[in-house]
């Protein structure tokens, strides 16, 4: 009677509006928790030591690029970075050169021992790097493979091999067999078929693999710390953790934070460029630990 | 015949490089840990001496190892439960409520999972820093200065502090997986439930969780294994196992037995033990979460 329809409507809407507000506050608080450490790090990289010690909330009084200069000169972040790039490139090359042909043969050709080999690689999924680090170290010591960036890359590539074979075999199976038959009739040999016909067709899978492996190789810490001993060959994560333990006594926080930012930048760039691929890839490959 | 040889040659050429790497850097060391875990072996120059299961017996009389095991157990329980729960809640909020900016939250929340563990460990060391960290100075701002603690230096708080770091790192990754899973659930189900008067919370428990169950099962196992590996980096950078071993985890203990004390045989026995326990945990979790028992 007196209750007009609009009043009822607003009354009904009010909880929904409040609900949305509460939800947004909840999500924004979480966003801050994720973003704040990174933002603080960037701010601190421009601060002088005194400012860093003073308060974690304040802004730097002037933009102090000294920290970055020192990160490159005294802390040698640039050298570590070159080592990291080298190791990532070599690991990636080794991984692709071994995983693509293996997955092709296991996914598309019939021969004796195929299912045994597939299971053999699957078993490798369960063996993480740290379990076997001791025998690996001893073996590499006996074979003079320690303190060598190539062999470190070989260990990285091997670590990713089981998952990569698993991911790519699935891709290879989904390509129709007609392509090979046509290629064979056209006189393409086995290797020609693999590299000119099949590899381009498996590109989505290969790109997914590259994206995942990039982060794994770029960020790896334990193996690099154990197998590389000379300072000139160390990768970025090892360089940073050394810097961290030195700075506790030298208290030159600024260059540590600048170093962290320098390492973050490539990660952020790659993430921004490949974000879609990465999250799609997670579903394509099922899951990955 | 010629064709057949060429085919055989091709298969061998494709498989051998991968197999060579796999056998050298994965299979051989794996066989070694099982075999050499039965030996007393102290140092690279030392000849291993067979001692049967003594390493395994020693393990259970080793106070430091038992403490590390307990700490690891704590993290393996707390971290998966909380991070998967938060991930599930966030995923269902972001997919169900259709906020305009949901893409941004997704991008931001996922970001920690691609950061280097070393970077994360260093950043969080400063967050917990007793004087310049923002946990303590935040407490002071709120007038709770008395609650300020040296979070990583106090044996009552250190494990929780590390657990929070691990949760911060992992949640976004699982959230994205759950979001993709929820996108695959037919909207009709939610619509029908809504018409029947089911609240959002009822829908969460009766539609979202059962439909995602297979993904959840897999993430539980991944998360447990993740804790094992990530805790190594986080602990060795943030606390070094301290204070007084109260944040030592099995992986850091294994590592220091091998590379500080040169107890290779003992370290490999620990490796075998962890390997078997993590396989058992995966099996148990699989069994417990089977459809029938749910």
Distinctive features:
heterodimer; A: 289 residues; mainly alpha; MetI-like fold; 2 domains; 13 helices; 0% strand; globular; disordered C terminus; B: 294 residues; two-stranded antiparallel sheet; 2 strands; 1% strand
Strand-helix topology:
The complex is a heterodimer of chains A (289) and B (294).
Chain A: H1 5-44, H2 49-54, H3 66-73, H4 77-108, H5 114-124, H6 133-142, H7 149-173, H8 178-185, H9 190-201, H10 203-219, H11 222-227, H12 236-250, H13 253-284
Helix pairs in contact in A: 3-13, 4-7, 4-10, 4-12, 5-7, 7-10, 8-9, 10-13, 12-13
Chain B: H1 2-36, E1 39-40, E2 49-50, H2 54-59, H3 63-96, H4 102-110, H5 117-127, H6 134-141, H7 158-183, H8 187-195, H9 200-238, H10 250-259, H11 264-288
Antiparallel strand pairs in B: 1-2
CATH-level-4 superfamily name of the largest domain in chain A:
MetI-like
Tell me the overall shape of chain B: globular
The helix count of chain B comes to: 11
Could you state the order of secondary-structure elements of chain B as H and E? HEEHHHHHHHHHH
Order of neighbouring strands in the sheet with most strands of chain B: 1-2
**Number of H- or I-type helical stretches of chain A:** 13
Classify the helix fraction of chain B into a percent range.
over 70%
Structural class of chain B: mainly alpha
- Summed up, the domain count of chain A is 2
Assign a percent range to the helix content of chain A. over 70%
Query: Terminal Cα separation of chain A, in Å?
Result: 62 Å
Strand content of chain A: under 5%
Biggest sheet details of chain B: 2 strands, antiparallel
- State the assembly state of the protein chains: heterodimer
Total beta strands of chain B:
2
How big is the Rg of chain B?
A: 24 Å
Mean pLDDT of chain A: 84
The biggest sheet of chain A amounts to:
none
The helix/strand series of chain A, from N terminus to C terminus, equals HHHHHHHHHHHHH
Membrane topology (chain A): Multi-pass membrane protein
Keywords (chain A): Cell membrane, Membrane, Transmembrane, Transmembrane helix, Transport
Subcellular location (chain A): Cell membrane
Domain ABC transmembrane type-1 (chain A): 81-274
């Amino acid at each position: 009677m007196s209750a007009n329809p609009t009043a009822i409507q607003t009354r009904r809407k009010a909880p929904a509006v409040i609900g949305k507000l509460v939800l947004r506050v909840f999500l924004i608080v979480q966003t801050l928790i994720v973003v704040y450490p990174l933002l603080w790090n960037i701010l601190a990289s421009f601060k002088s030591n005194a400012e860093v010690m003073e308060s974690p909330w304040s802004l730097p009084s002037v933009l102090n690029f000294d920290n970055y200069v020192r990160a490159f000169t005294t802390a040698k972040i640039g050298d570590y970075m070159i080592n990291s790039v080298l190791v990532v490139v070599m690991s990636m090359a080794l991984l692709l050169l071994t995983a693509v042909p293996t997955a092709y043969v296991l996914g598309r050709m019939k021969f004796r021992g195929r299912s045994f080999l597939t299971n053999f690689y699957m078993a490798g999924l369960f063996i993480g790097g740290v379990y076997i680090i001791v025998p690996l170290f001893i073996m590499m010591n006996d074979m003079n493979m320690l303190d060598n960036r190539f062999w470190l890359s070989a260990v990285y590539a091997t670590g990713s091999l089981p998952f990569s074979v698993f991911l790519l075999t699935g891709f290879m199976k989904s390509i129709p067999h007609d392509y090979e038959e046509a290629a064979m009739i056209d006189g393409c040999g086995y290797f020609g078929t693999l590299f000119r016909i099949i590899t381009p067709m498996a590109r989505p899978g290969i790109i997914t693999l590259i994206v995942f492996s990039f982060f794994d190789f770029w960020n790896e810490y334990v193996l690099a710390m154990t197998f590389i001993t000379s300072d000139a060959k160390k990768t970025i994560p090892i360089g940073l953790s050394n810097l961290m333990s030195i700075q506790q006594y030298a208290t030159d926080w600024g260059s540590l934070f600048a170093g962290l930012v320098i390492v973050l930048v490539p990660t952020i760039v790659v993430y921004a460029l490949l974000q879609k691929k990465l999250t799609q890839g997670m579903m394509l490959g099922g899951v990955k630990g | 015949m010629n064709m057949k040889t060429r085919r055989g040659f091709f298969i061998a050429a494709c498989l051998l490089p991968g197999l060579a790497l796999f056998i050298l850097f994965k299979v051989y060391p794996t066989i070694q840990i099982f075999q050499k875990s039965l030996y007393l072996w102290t140092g690279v120059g030392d000849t291993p001496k067979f001692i049967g299961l003594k390493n395994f017996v020693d393990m259970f009389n080793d106070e430091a190892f038992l403490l590390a095991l307990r700490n690891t157990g704590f993290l393996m329980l707390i971290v998966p439960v909380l991070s998967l729960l938060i991930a599930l809640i966030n995923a269902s909020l972001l997919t169900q409520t259709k906020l305009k900016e949901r893409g941004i939250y997704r991008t931001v929340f996922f970001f920690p999972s691609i950061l280097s563990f070393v970077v994360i460990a260093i950043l969080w060391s400063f967050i917990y820093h007793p004087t310049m960290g923002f946990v303590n100075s935040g407490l002071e701002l709120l007038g709770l200065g008395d609650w300020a603690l040296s979070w990583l230096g106090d044996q009552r708080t250190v494990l929780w502090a590390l657990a929070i770091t691990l949760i911060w790192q992992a949640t976004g990754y699982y959230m994205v997986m759950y979001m993709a899973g929820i996108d695959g659930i037919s909207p009709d189900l939610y619509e029908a439930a809504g018409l029947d008067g089911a609240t959002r919370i009822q829908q969460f428990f009766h539609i979202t969780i059962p439909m995602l169950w297979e993904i959840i099962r897999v993430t539980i196992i991944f998360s447990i294994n993740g804790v094992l590996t990530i805790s190594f980096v986080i602990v060795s950078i943030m606390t070094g196992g301290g204070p007084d071993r109260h944040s030592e985890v099995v992986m850091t203990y294994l590592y220091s037995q091998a590379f500080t004390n040169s107890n290779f045989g003992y370290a490999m026995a620990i490796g075998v033990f962890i390997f078997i326990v993590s396989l058992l945990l995966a099996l148990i979790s699989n069994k417990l979460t089977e459809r029938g028992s749910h």
